[in-house]
Amino acid sequence: MKKIALLSTFLAGFTVSHSALALTQPELNQITQQIENRLSEEKITGISIAVVKDNTPILLEGFGFANTQTQQPVTSDTQFRIASITKTFVTLAVLKLVNEGKLSLDDSVYKHLSDFRPKVLPNNNGKITVRDLLTHQSGIPSGWYRGDEPTTTPDQDLNSLAALLSDEYLVWDRGTISAYNNNAFALAGLLVSRVSGQSWQAYLQSEFFDPLGMESTLSHLPNGPLPTKMAESYSGTQIEPKYAALTTPAGGMISTGNDMARYMQAILDSWNYNSHAILPASLIKTVRNVQNNHVKLDGDHQMGLGFFIESFNGHIAIKHDGSYQGYESSMYIVPELNFGVFVTTNNRVGADAVEDIAKAVTSMVAQQAPGPFEHTSTPQLDESRKTLEAGAYVGTSSVFIEQNPSGEFSVFSEGFGYKPLKKVAAQTYQVQGIDYDIKIKPTEAIEGVRFLYDGKDYAHVFSKLVTTQLTPELEQLLGYYQIQSDNPILGDLILEYAPELQALVLVSVKHGFTRTVKVVGDNLLQVQGYGRGIGTVFDFSQPGKLNGLGYQFKKVPAPITGE
């Protein structure tokens, strides 16, 4: 696919140094040249990069423009939104409180957030630990749009998060799947605030920004015009709307290449020299401990505490990406190499570029000598014991698998149409007739399937369709539901019955996507499938109303649209 091809092109331009594990000046020059090429070829507005090695920033540079109208150049002091890399600060903040004896990772969340009392489905246990929040395993609904609403008082509004999420149902038991979850990390940020006795903004300032000299880093976007040093953000040539949101600990921070170099170096100093710049070495090293070996639906990805884990030539990197309102970022840290890289851009079209560049620089350093760790992946159940079955599978979309009388399978998906499948490994099938590498295999933990893209497991799991008989009671629920909010993101919903599926479906009027739902209780419908944004529960218990996604909807006659 495009991203893989671009990464291969980027790597092809490098020659690896065989000197001490550092980057030579020619190699640094090659990095900057490749960034210039990506800016030009892909019409990316601006890029900033920070590379630290052996206690020293060895590359701090900006490229392109922070603002196309004013022609303000990007420098290492230009501010960008680092988006979800903020989650790594949440994780380290929680570990600081652990170090102070104020909480344990295995404490119940309810112990520290007394106003958080989410609703629980009949077959769920409702348990959540602090650790679950940091590993995306809590079961808190990730498809909760209320947290994306604009606010001018994010620090104050964060205090309402626990009560607002209490109106929602937990979608799965903890540990069912690591489903990426902004709401859970925002709740962890609130927990830090409550336990420390400081606001989220004040805690970051006193525990990170001031001690580490991160003078240009902010907890969230301030009101009014952009700060003078902050890059404008774009999608192509269009300026992206920007605002602070309720879930600011999940992705609100603003920083610079210079400040992120200080942050990465503080992590490395704590890790390698027990400097306590952030935490004792024994505690900060726990972020790399794999947290999802027990999670049966996670596929091959490895989740640490607040960081994702990747291997490079026997070296293990902790990493995180960020994407929000036109800002895209990627950070890799390899403790054994005393190395870190942070790359960011102010244009949505540069998302692949920043990931490719950060990954390629990490690979360049790691390839100079093999590391001490063998490549490992999350242990999975023996998929060979599970047989691919024909049928309909649902999640982010619908997938149909057919088997002919000779036993050969084919698959239909909206993404690539109707294609034959070829068995290439034990219960792993290659999709034929397309230009990129997509495979499909069954999951043993549930009746379901997952896709593999370029050899990597897709995060979402498609579950076997649960059909629904349309009873008179359910038929009364069908209709058009108008959102009772002026939130510009979401829009109205329609509940329909799809006879070809024999299932209920919810349709987003504004965005056009469809989610297949099943009955999970009296007047309760749940989205089928597993993963980010999947599993949401919709509550129809109040006559003529729907509650879900953080909002109330009112049943109204469908609007009449003209031709």
TrEMBL record:
The UniProt record lists the keyword Hydrolase: yes
Domain of life: Bacteria
GO molecular function: hydrolase activity
Protein keywords: Hydrolase, Signal
InterPro entries xref list: AmpC-like, Beta-lactam-related, Beta-lactam/transpept-like
Residue span, Beta-lactamase-related domain: 33-356
Top EC group: hydrolase
EC annotation from Swiss-Prot or TrEMBL: 3.1.1.103
Range of residues in the leader sequence: 1-22
Protein name as catalogued: Serine hydrolase domain-containing protein
Top-level taxonomy: Bacteria, Pseudomonadati, Pseudomonadota, Gammaproteobacteria, Alteromonadales
